[in-house]
Each structure stands twice: as C-alpha cells, then as structure tokens.
Amino acid sequence: MTMIYSAIEGAAKKHPVVRESLTVKAARLAAGLDQAVQAFLMANDQNLGDIELQIEQQSRELLRTAAEKAAQKKADGTPPRCPVCHKPLSQVSPEHRRSFECKFRTITIGRSRGYCKRCRKWRFPADTALGLEDSAGYSPRVQEMAALLASKMPVSEASAVLEHLTGVQLPRATLDREARRQGKRAQQVRRQEDERACQAPAKAVQPELVLEPYQMIIQLDAWNIRERDQWGQTQQLRRRAKEPERWHWVYTGTCFRLDHRGQTAGGRPVISQRGFVATREGIDGLREQLYAEALRRGLGQAAGVLIIGDGALWIWRLADDRFKEARQRLDFYHAVQHLAAVGRALFCEDQAKLKSWLRPLVRQLKNQSAVKVVEKLEDILAHLPAGAAAQAVQKEVNYFHEHQDRMDYRAGRRRGEPIGSGAVESTCRQEQCRFKRPGQYWSPEGDEALLCLETFWRNGRWHLLFPHCRRFDPSKN
Question: How far apart, in Å, are the Cα atoms of 248 and each of 225, 309, 310?
C-alpha cells in the first residue's frame, strides 16, 4: 500500500496543479484500504475476491480525479488549430465545459472553442486530442467496451456484464446505440484499409521477410442470419400467397499461409495466423474484402493459391473472378456426403449395406483417384433400371463430373495441404453462436456493423479503431 501511495505522491510532485487534490485523496484512500485489509483479515466468510472488489470500489474516486486532471492538462496543452485542415482557429474562447463518462465514472473538463474559416465550422481541438470528437458522451475506453461486449453477446447481457465487471452503467438502449456507432465507424475504417491494401505494393502490405516460398490457402462458406425485413407485413404477404423473407446469407472467408498451419501435441490441426472476413454486403462485398485481407496476409508474395469450398457455384465464380490463377478444391467431406447420397438411393434404410459399400469408396477417393470413383458410379448407374434411384444416382454422377478436377485429395495430402474447409466452417459456427440466438432479429445495418467489429477483433486490428489498444493483439491470445 505504501508503494502505491509513494508512486501517486511522486506523480503529484511533478504536476503541482494536481498535487493537493491527489495527495489528499491518496492519503484518504491509503487509510481506507488499510482498514479494509484489517477487516478482511478478521472476516472468516471473505476470500480474495471480496478484498479485490473493495479495493476497486474505494480506488475509483482517486482514479477518476487523476483521469480528470490528466484530461484537463491535455486539453489545456492542445493548440487552437483545426483538427481537420490544421489551420489556426479564430474567435477562440476558453472554458467550454463538457462532461462525459469514463471507466471511473463522470469527468468534467473545460476546453477551448474556435472557428475554422476554411472548414466553416466551430471546432473543439481538445475533443480530437482526447478521442471525444464524435462521441456521445463516453470516453474512448467506454466506447471500446461497448463495442466489444455488444459484438460478443446480446446487448441486454452486455449492459449487465459491463456494470458488474467495471462499474460503468450503460443502459441497454445506450449501449446498443454506441455499439452501432462504433460499428459504422469500423466500416469506414475497413473501406480505407482495404483500399490501401489493394493500392500498395506487395512488400508494403506484408513487411515480413519471406525466406521460403509458401502457399496461400483461402476457404469460403456462407451461413444464414435472420433479419426484420418486411416486419409487420407477414399476414398481408401470406394473404397474397407470398411467404415473407427472413433469412439472408452472410458470406464468410478465411485465408492463411500453409506454413502457418500445424498440429497440437494431440494431432489436432491448428493455424497460428489467419485472416477473417464476414459480410452481409453480398458476394461482391466478400470478394473485395477477402482480396484485401489476403493481400495483408501475404497473397502478393505467395508461390501459389488454393481455394477450398463446399461446391456452391458462387464460390468458384468468385475464385475465377478475383483469384484467376488459384487452384480449386472441393471440400472432401462434402464430396463424401454426395457419395453417401448415392448409397442411400441404392440401399434405402439398410445402414449396414450402406456403410459397407461407402467405406472403400471413401478410402479410394481420399488416397487414390477421383476418376476411379466416378467410373464406379457410372458403372452402377448403367445397371440401374429407370426410376427414382437412377435419377438420384445420375444427379450425383453429374456432380462428380462437374467437380472432378477439384478432387485432387491424394496430391493435396502429399503436399501437406488441407483437403477440407473445416477452418471456415468452424468460423461460421462461432459467428452463428452470436448472431443466431433464439428470438434475435437483425437489420442489414445492425448485423454488418457488428460483423465488422468482430472481424477487426479476430484479425488483430482492434487498435485501428481504438488506438489505446495498440499494444494488445487479441489474435495472439
């Protein structure tokens, strides 16, 4: 406790303006904490969590005062220049008071205001210096907490968790509004970063020194999200024999270098570094965002590119459009599902015969050649009488013919490449855990904003939205 007091007193001596206030409050805090410690030692029903909570609550006023004094000194030292065009302001007047919520409750400061003749706007330079220029009365740290919690859990839960863990009180509606605002800001930053990635030389995008050639792996998939479109019109639409639309596609992609893929001690595949994209802006939005993310992950210096998907037509069209030179591979497990569809057409509900027939074909597809599997299916089809079974088998034969060149599983395994799209499928599942909870409905603006926040967090670029987090990389935790 003495060390804490000495550190605060030393800081106060360096800044005489805040010396008396901080010193007095620090002394009062030290005395209060000593009493709390003694009471804690005598209480048999308390553990370390109790004293942690007491120390946090009693320290908050001192921390609030320190933050307020620091913010005021920062405001006082900010020159009267326009934060946009950097021209000197005219008609400068001081002491315009403003209060806002920080992590330690309400802070009030005075700052100068001036008129920018070039921008033709009144400006508060200190607001920009403190990260408050466009805020709704909350400090950058509180803005960050609102954005992060809302992207991870429903807003009602986020509001309660925020107050419980930090003491910051943000009502549900306020937290929701602040998170949406941060999400829209994230979309603007994303567009700027994507444009910069596409325009910069490859070495500038990926400054890491490359010693050996590597392959870039890109996996694509999509999942459904429920939105409030045509809300309140359900009965009217159904009377016109039109079912209202509720579910819409969220297009998702992930990219990583093959040399960043490894295994745990138990043999489970892991990827040490990879990029994520998830958007409701359609296939066009995914194409542009994924291309920029792949560039940031080393696409410009890759020796080759491999696209893996589940067979959806839009995946291969996107690959042909934006990644023309890339190899394409059908997800192995989707291919197996189509083999199983043939087995069900042949053996109906006889699971023993289905498994006995399917097992050698799966091994052959994985370890030998897709050509032989296709020949086997064609031979089966040739001996089937006309009917529903023949139609089902014909459909799957056509599917295998269409994707035969994308079934190089034996060669892929020899090169140490993934043969399935499990990385992106797990990503989709993780995102669905947030966005597909019972009773949740979204709007295109709301879901895109939170998806954008989530991808900034996953991609380790959270600091681009909140510069005070520049030393923290969530992708490495």
Answer: 5, 19, 18
Q: At what angle do helices 444-458 and 422-435 cross, to 10 degrees?
A: 130
Task: Kindly report the backbone phi and psi dihedral angles of residue 165, in degrees, each rounded to the nearest multiple of 5, phi listed first.
Answer: -85, -30
- For residue 204, the model assigns a pLDDT of 59
Beta bridge partners of 318: none
Q: Are 159 and 170 in contact (CB under 8 A)?
A: yes
pLDDT band at 246 (very low <50, low <70, confident <90, very high): confident
pLDDT digits (tens, 9 = 90+) for 154-182: 999 999 999 999 989 999 999 999 999 99
Mean pLDDT of the chain: 88
Among 222, 221, 277, 284, residue whose Cα is nearest residue 455: 277
Q: How far apart are CA 365 and CA 54, in angstroms?
A: 63
Contacts of 393 (CB under 8 A, 6+ apart): 342, 345, 346, 377, 380, 381, 384
Q: Which residue has the higher pLDDT, 379 or 267?
A: 379
Q: Are 256 and 271 in contact (CB under 8 A)?
A: yes
Q: In what order do the strands lie in the sheet with 215-226?
A: 275-279, 247-257, 215-226, 304-309, 327-330
Please tell me the distance from the alpha carbon of residue 295 to that of residue 322, in angstroms, as a whole number: 12
What is the separation, in whole angstroms, between the first and last Cα of the chain?
Answer: 31
Q: What is the pLDDT of residues 436-471, one digit of tens each?
A: 988 888 888 889 999 999 999 999 999 999 999 987
Burial label, 41 (beta-carbon count in 10 A; 0-12, 13-18, 19+): exposed
Per-residue tokens: 448: 């895109």
Whether 257 and 210 have beta carbons less than 8 Å apart is answered as no
